[in-house]
Write a structure and sequence with these properties.
The complex is a heterodimer.
Chain A (H helix, E strand, L loop, with lengths): L5 H7 L4 H20 L20 H4 L5 H13 L3 H14 L3 H19 L7 E2 L24 E2 L6 E5 L1 H4 L8 E7 L14 H18 L4 E9 L2 E11 L8 E7 L19 H4 L15 H11 L1 H12 L3 H16 L11 H13 L9 H14 L7 E2 L11 H7 L4 E2 L13 H20 L4 H7 L4 H4 L2 E5 L4 H8 L3 H7 L3 H17 L3 E6 L6 E3 L13 E7 L1 H4 L3 E6 L4 H9 L4 E4 L5 E6 L5 H5 L1 H14 L6 E4 L18 H19 L12 E2 L23 E3 L4 E3 L13 E7 L6 H4 L4 H15 L7 H23 L2 E4 L4 E5 L2 E9 L2 H6 E3 L5 E3 L3 H26 L3 H14 L8 H13 L10 H14 L7 E2 L8 H13 L9 E2 L16 H23 L20 E5 L39 H13 L3 E5 L6 E6 L7 E2 L8 E6 L2 E6 L1 H11 L4 E6 L7
Parallel strand pairs in A: 4-7, 8-9, 21-24, 27-28
Antiparallel strand pairs in A: 1-2, 3-4, 5-6, 5-12, 6-7, 10-13, 10-17, 11-13, 14-16, 15-16, 18-21, 19-20, 22-23, 23-24, 25-26, 29-31, 29-35, 30-31, 32-34, 33-34
Chain B lengths: L1 E4 L18 E4 L9 E6 L5 H8 L5 E7 L25 E7 L2 H8 L18 H11 L3 H29 L24 H18 L6 H13 L57
Antiparallel strand pairs in B: 1-2, 3-5, 4-5
Classes of the chains: A alpha+beta, B alpha+beta.
Chain lengths: ~1150, ~290
């Protein structure tokens, strides 16, 4: 391998996964940059910006060595790309155990081995007589029922061997575990020990005695019990070295029976080894019904017997094939990022190793393959096969005495037999877990095939915790409730099989129940696996109810969510009874339009928000009906954040309906505009530009019905005016629509009858179209547009009776209580504004601020609005996510720095590029991913590409990236690229500044863990608004405002209990006067403050009912400046060292704050002394 | 030289409206420009009337101008339309107070003490009251707007018509030096004078010239190009010393041994005599 970039090597050594992530990102980006093009960035290198490595001419053109050529050839044949190879190698270097540590671990293992073999033996006792155990140790097993036949004595193990991934070299950091099998001597065991948990009791006692002796030893820092893979019949002993190596390694001791002690035919899945008579303390019903089979119990015994044979198998397969080992390590990382490998029934690293062995045996994987190819093949296999229907087996012999796969399918949901043909490796894996693995594998395969994204980063470096991966999450708490559920569901055989683990028993029954009930609403149901607990040897093992909570994750199907009806079979069909039985009292007979009479369930949900929460109703209903779990035990986390985007008075809806009503009204208006008669030019397009029209306005507008007594009247202009003696009236924001004019398509017959002014501007527009001389006059165009606005208002008034108010730049139209602001646009106007005439008379095109602004408003904004409107039709959750995101940013007082459009685009990216997730279907999960994206995206070195309508091809995206890198220093800090705007990132040109973006990133990184913890807390989330409250301690000055003059006071995060009347009627009534538009005193005040003191301080405010303006002094402005006439704003003269300098006059400025906002400002608090100069 | 006297805020009579600060500028030389202007520095809420009231004790005030930036000359401003030039958000501004007599300026320079901007008899609106009155002002009469647009467009039309008539009159008529102005409107329209058009022309010209230049005409030229290429880097496929260039070997891009595989510029025998506009550029040796 050639010399890696210096930076990457320096960073590569750190052991923490987080650090690793950064380092890898670094290498990745550098590589990409270099492969794109060799170029030098102009200007001084900005810190943190990745620069190509400078190499001398000689280095650059050195002949490649043989080794390098070999690697090139290898990369070509074994990897997707050379970048991927680098990334994979870097990752493996991170997760591999270094040789140095291996030596230390080996030494420790030898010590353990000696000490275990030296543990003294004890005399023989009855199993039930446990008085011989010393006081400091408890049996790590729930002995229910206690009485059991048999004797026990401790004898030193006959053999101690290392098994598992450590031996194979496939263990991954962090949490290095070494599994040791401790073979119990044959003398301890008796015949029929396989029956009635006798073997497990002996195993537990064996461990207890071992634990007692080892805990005396100073070699060990800690001696704990734990469960092997979470199976609570099989404790294991955890040993950690003392001293600085404490976190180096955990040695797990697993006692196991001598080889061939149990006969495998007694442990077939159809056999019973736990007698009902013993377990339930009663004889089975006398009618001779057979004992229920105990497949899981049998498997656990079998697992202990095959520890060594498995490790032998794996070592022969993986043996010297480094690619396979790499592949297994990658698969383990993949599973760990998805939290699939932990707990009882997890898809553990051992399982994937066996899967790789299986794929080798079926020749799907070859030993010469690279790690990446192994990962790919394994994922491909997982994605395309269904082990719940067609199990697989490592067993090659065709012995007729072996059990058939079908027998296993009857007993277990997922079947993967080992080489002996008796043991199902996937016995504990539930169908849901397996489906989740399949789902992830499918997503990953799609990602690997897509080529567009940085697949490695998304596949192996992005964690997918449950709360961020699933749309809705529900916690069952307390778990003891599940015991009753087991009784209700009649799960005694399962309990007998699982040794009383009612959580697993109930889980097996509840997931199919919920899956059936949620039906078409559900895409995937996943459950958390009980975590593997550790406890001190002097304590009793944790009870089942203490194993945390059971969390279910629902991945919803957005198209199924909208239906409120669960259609059942026709009433006279035999299936109707089943349907009634399943839904209980919720099932009712209904007659449908086609005459059919059917069973059906109807859920109450009027608004979109309620429909999204129908799964909540379904789950609580089914759990109460079938499992006797009351709704107080079901903590459903799905709509907790909805409260933040509900309008103050409407609590049943999150505003999608109100937005749709506004959009409908807009559609009506645009139809009116299209059909307007008497305009000298025809309308070529009516386009919306306001956030409402793309469903992303945080609080949707409501139709206004002003109470006239509340206002002054301006009779001759039919307008209402605010009154100083009343509280500030409700805020009405006009929605902007654009209406570009089209070329002359008039009807010539009626144009002649127009009045003079219409004829005039008709003429002028024609001139503009036809002549090369006139369009240079922007002033004339403005006049023409003004005349058009007037005419438009007149016509709308005449023909449709709409109240209008025309100004030079826009026309406000009042329709059905909504106010629209129509701006007439002329498509060549930006072009004309751009024209510059040089002194020689040469005309050149240069972007001017006015032309950029106009183009943004009349071209980009309508395009964006229609694209996002389309996105909302595809993904109904888009609106909710975008509004929550905006709400959060504004609540953190950063709304001014980030434009609405840029936030909308970031949210759109969550839907268009959801990898490695699926597009969010609920606002909650979308918001969490928004926070994650904001806090982790590398804005400095990457553009955020939002591929609206999938218009950008892979090549174009690569081109955009290289263009971005070349022009990085000229671009804004946050670059968002869309198909319409590939270079300039128009929506982030004016902000945020680097400081604001940094603050946003920090806040998001803080908020995400807090919110996730709250949502994952089964006791209830506590105060969900915590992350929406801004930290105020960072501001130098706080300006407190009087709620009386804050028109949107009720929208505040902590909604006030009482606020002021805002002059609106509650009942509908005719409204003929133009309401007060866009009058928001805090915003007017802020505009004044920013204009007057913008170069001295930054002002922060939450436009949704904030009562505080935060002021932050700019440190640079407090430098004394030379005395200059143009430099005197808010400063005073001071003599310093005989020279006159200007410094800010802070006292006077604070006074000005109060004077400027007279009536609005309650108090001005100076909080820090930082401003003293 | 400029000096500055800062006045401190003074509260007016108890119970009355608070006095506003007024930072005041004065110029040592006394008068600026016309000799009757005095410059004051304005806090955001001060109005023209207020300033003329404050300075009236120094002498009769002729006018007060508010500007965003200090401006030395007297630049006559075009009257602004209240419809088309939106009033900017008030910030700090500079005021020029023009006195009727120069004595006013000298009196203003020695004016002492803080000046109270807002008094009971002459309150200056700020805060809520100001915003409400601004809102009221922003509701304009559409009829006035219509009249303004009409007058503007009439004048504009007239001007355009005049210019057009004049252009038509002058068309084809040589001026005193004998030049004829050619416009697009003439019988033989010319190219528009835009940057894009001129760039296009230049590019075309460049291509034409490049085509005519002979590169490998003589043996020595040929040899030189060969020599140059020898020192040049090898084909890009063979320089993978970057770790990120480990990818598939680039397509072989020709060899580096000779120039035969390189695309050759079209060879053309030089035509005799000056060809085209600029002729062929030939090495001198041809003639020696």
């Amino acid at each position: 391998m050639g010399p890696a970039p210096a930076g990457a090597q320096d960073r590569g050594g750190a052991g923490e996964p987080e650090v690793m992530e950064l380092a890898l990102e670094g290498t990745g980006k550098e590589g990409k940059k270099e492969s794109s093009k060799k170029h030098t960035l102009s200007g001084s290198p900005v810190e943190g910006l990745l620069q190509p490595v400078k190499l001398s001419q000689a280095e650059l053109y050195k002949e490649p060595t043989n080794e390098e050529l070999n690697r090139l050839r290898e990369t070509e044949s074994l990897f997707h790309s050379s970048l991927l190879r680098l990334q994979v190698e870097e990752l493996l270097k991170e997760v591999r155990l270094p040789e140095k540590k291996k030596e230390r671990i080996d030494a420790f293992l030898r010590e353990v081995n000696q000490r275990v073999l030296r543990v003294p033996s004890t005399p023989k006792r009855e199993l039930t007589d446990q008085t011989w155990l010393p006081a400091g140790v408890r049996v790590p097993l729930h002995q229910v029922p206690y009485t059991v036949k048999g004797c026990f004595c401790f004898l030193p193990p006959s053999q101690v061997t290392v098994v598992g991934s450590y031996l194979l070299g496939t263990c991954v950091r962090p949490d290095i575990n070494v599994d040791m099998a401790v073979t119990m001597p044959r003398e301890i065991l008796q015949d029929k020990d396989g029956l009635n948990q006798r073997y497990f009791r002996k195993r537990a006692l064996y461990l207890a005695h071992l634990a007692h002796h080892l805990s005396q030893d100073p070699l060990f820092g800690s001696v704990h019990f734990s469960y092997t893979n979470g199976c609570h019949l099989k404790p294991s002993l955890l040993l950690r070295p003392r001293g600085k190596d404490e976190r180096l390694v955990t040695v797990r001791l697993h006692p196991c029976p001598p080889p061939d002690f149990f006969r495998p035919c007694r442990l077939l899945p159809s056999k019973n080894n736990v007698r009902s008579a013993w377990y339930r303390g009663q004889s089975p019903p006398g009618d001779g019904s057979p004992e229920p089979p105990t497949p899981h119990y049998n498997t656990w015994v079998l697992q202990d017997m095959t520890l060594e044979s498995h490790v032998q198998l794996l070592s022969t397969v993986l043996g010297s094939a480094f690619g396979l080992k790499d592949g297994v390590a990658l698969l383990k990382v993949w599973l760990r990022q998805r939290e699939l490998d932990k707990g009882l029934g997890g898809f553990s690293g051992f399982l994937v190793s066996m899967l790789v062995a299986f794929l080798v045996s079926t020749r799907k994987i070859h030993t010469t393959m690279s790690g990446y190819q192994v990962l790919r093949s394994a994922l491909q296999f997982l994605a395309t096969t269904d082990l719940t229907v067609n199990g697989i087996s490592l067993c090659l012999s065709s012995d007729p005495s072996l059990p058939a796969l079908a027998d296993f399918h009857q007993a277990f949901p997922v079947v993967f037999l080992d080489s002996s043909g008796y043991l199902n490796l996937c016995a504990d894996v539930t169908a849901s877990t397996y489906h989740q693995v399949q789902h992830e594998a499918r997503l990953s395969m799609a990602l690997l095939d897509s080529r567009t994204d940085d697949g490695f980063q998304l596949l192996l470096m992005t964690p997918k915790p449950m709360i961020r991966a699933f749309d809705h999450v529900l916690h069952l708490h307390p778990l003891s409730r599940l015991q009753a559920a087991c009784h209700r569901l009649k799960l005694w055989p399962e309990l007998q099989d699982l040794g009383g683990d009612y959580v697993s028993a109930a889980l097996g029954a509840l997931t199919p129940l919920l899956e059936q009930g949620l039906g078409s609403r559900l895409h995937l149901l996943a459950h958390s696996r009980p975590p593997v607990s550790e406890w001190d040897i002097s304590q009793d093992p944790p009870k089942h109810r203490d194993s945390g909570t059971l969390t279910l994750g629902l991945l919803l199907r957005p198209e199924g969510l909208t239906s409120v009806l669960e259609l059942g079979p026709e009433a006279n069909q035999p299936e109707a009874a089943d349907f009634r039985q399943f839904w209980g009292s919720r099932s009712e007979l209904r007659r449908f339009q086609d005459g059919a009479i059917r069973e059906a369930v109807v859920w109450e949900a009027a608004s979109m928000a309620q429909k999204r929460l129908i799964p909540h109703q379904v789950v609580t209903h089914l759990l109460a009906l079938h499992a006797n779990i009351p709704d107080t035990c079901v903590h459903y986390v799905g709509g907790l954040l909805d409260a933040l985007i509900q309008s103050p008075k409407e609590t049943s809806s999150t505003g999608e309906e109100a937005l749709a009503a506004a959009v409908r009204c807009y559609d009506d208006l645009s139809r009116l505009l299209w059909g307007l008669e008497g305009l000298p030019l025809t309308v070529s397009a009516v386009q919306g530009a306001h956030p409402v029209l793309r469903y992303t306005e945080v609080f949707p507008p409501t139709p206004v019905r002003p109470a006239y007594s509340f206002y002054e009247h301006l009779r001759d202009r039919a307008s209402l005016l605010p009154r100083p003696d009343k509280p500030c009236p409700a805020y009405v924001e006009p929605m902007t629509g654009e209406e570009p004019l089209r070329k002359d398509e008039r009807n010539p017959s009626h144009s002649m009858s127009q009045s003079r002014d219409l004829l005039l501007f008709f003429l002028v527009v024609c001139h503009l179209e036809g002549s090369g001389q006139w369009p240079q006059d922007a002033e004339a165009i403005r006049r023409v547009r003004a005349a058009f606005q007037l005419r438009l208002a007149e016509l709308l008034m005449q023909q449709h009776g709409l109240r209008c108010r025309a100004t030079a730049t826009h026309t406000d139209v009042l329709k059905d209580g909504f106010v629209f602001r129509i701006r007439v646009a002329y498509q060549r106007e930006p072009q004309i504004l751009r024209e510059m005439r040089s002194p020689e008379g040469m005309i050149s095109l240069r972007d001017t601020p006015a032309s950029i602004h106009l183009e943004r408003d009349t071209r980009h904004l309508p395009l964006l609005t229609s694209a996002l409107h389309g996105l909302q039709q595809q993904h109904p959750a888009f609106s909710g996510v975008a509004r929550l995101a905006k709400r959060w940013v504004r609540a953190q007082l950063l709304g001014e720095g980030l434009s609405d459009e840029s936030l909308d685009l970031v949210v759109a990216a969550l839907f268009l590029h959801p990898e490695p997730f699926t597009p969010p279907s609920s606002p909650q999960v979308g918001f969490l991913r928004f926070l994650f994206l904001i806090s982790t995206f590398d804005w400095r070195n990457n553009p955020l590409i939002v591929n609206l309508n999938n218009e950008l091809t892979v090549e174009e995206q690569a081109e955009i990236r290289s263009g971005f890198l070349a022009a990085r220093t000229q671009l804004p800090v946050m670059v968002i690229v869309t198909p319409q705007d590939r270079k300039n990132s128009v929506w982030t040109q004016d902000g945020p500044s680097p400081q604001i973006l940094q603050q946003l990133v920090v806040l998001a990184a803080e908020a995400l863990p807090v919110l996730e913890k709250q949502l994952m807390d089964p006791q209830g989330p506590g105060d969900i608004r915590t992350v929406f409250r801004p930290p105020l301690d960072m501001y130098d000055v706080l300006i407190r405002l009087s709620p009386r003059h804050i028109p949107r006071h009720r929208q505040a995060v902590d909604s006030p209990a009482a606020s002021f009347c805002r002059g609106l009627l509650s009942e509908p009534g005719p409204c003929s006067l133009m309401p007060v538009l866009g009058y928001d005193p805090p915003q007017l005040y802020l505009a004044q403050l920013r204009e007057a003191f913008g170069d001295l301080a930054l002002f922060f405010y939450d436009q949704h009912g904030g009562e505080v303006i935060g002021v932050l002094w700019k440190p640079t402005s407090f430098q004394p400046q030379p005395f200059k006439a143009s430099n005197t704003k808010g400063r005073m003269v001071m003599s310093r060292g005989g020279e006159l300098v200007m410094v800010p006059n802070v006292e006077a400025i604070l006074e000005d704050f109060a004077i400027l906002g007279e009536g609005l400002v309650q108090a001005v608090e100076a909080r820090s002394e930082r401003w003293t100069v | 030289m400029e000096t500055r006297a800062r006045s401190r805020r003074r509260t007016a009579t108890p119970g009355g409206p608070r006095g506003f600060r007024l930072a005041r500028w004065r110029r040592a030389g006394g008068s600026v420009g016309r000799g009757t202007r005095s410059r004051g520095f304005r806090a955001p809420q001060v109005t023209q009337e207020c300033l003329s009231r404050l300075f009236s004790p120094c002498g009769a005030v002729q006018s007060v101008e508010l500007q965003e930036k200090p401006d030395l000359g007297d630049s006559p401003k075009e009257p602004k339309s209240k419809f088309f030039d939106p009033t900017p958000v008030p910030g700090f501004q500079v005021a020029y107070v023009v006195f009727q007599k120069p004595a006013g300026v000298s009196a203003a320079i020695v004016l002492k003490g803080p000046l109270v901007v807002s008094t009971e008899s002459h309150p200056v609106k700020s805060g809520i009251h100001k915003w409400i009155s601004n809102y009221v002002d922003s509701v304009l009469d559409p009829e006035t707007l219509r009249v303004e647009v009409d007058t503007f467009m009439e004048a504009y039309d007239k001007r355009i018509a005049e210019e057009e008539a004049k252009a038509k009159e002058e068309e084809g008529v040589p001026d005193e030096e004998g030049w004829v102005k050619v416009t697009r409107r003439g019988r033989r329209p010319v190219l528009p004078r835009t940057e894009a058009a001129s760039l296009r022309v230049l590019e075309k010209e460049r291509q034409k010239r490049a085509r005519k230049e002979l590169l490998n005409f003589y043996a020595w030229q040929h040899r030189e190009t060969k020599m140059e290429r020898k020192g040049a880097p090898p084909a890009p496929g063979l320089q993978p010393h970057f770790p990120w260039r480990l990818g598939p070997v680039h397509e072989a891009q020709g060899c580096c041994c000779c120039c035969r595989c390189q695309p050759q510029p079209e060879r053309r025998a030089p035509r005799g005599g000056p060809g085209g506009v600029l002729g062929h550029r030939l090495p001198d040796r041809l003639w020696s």
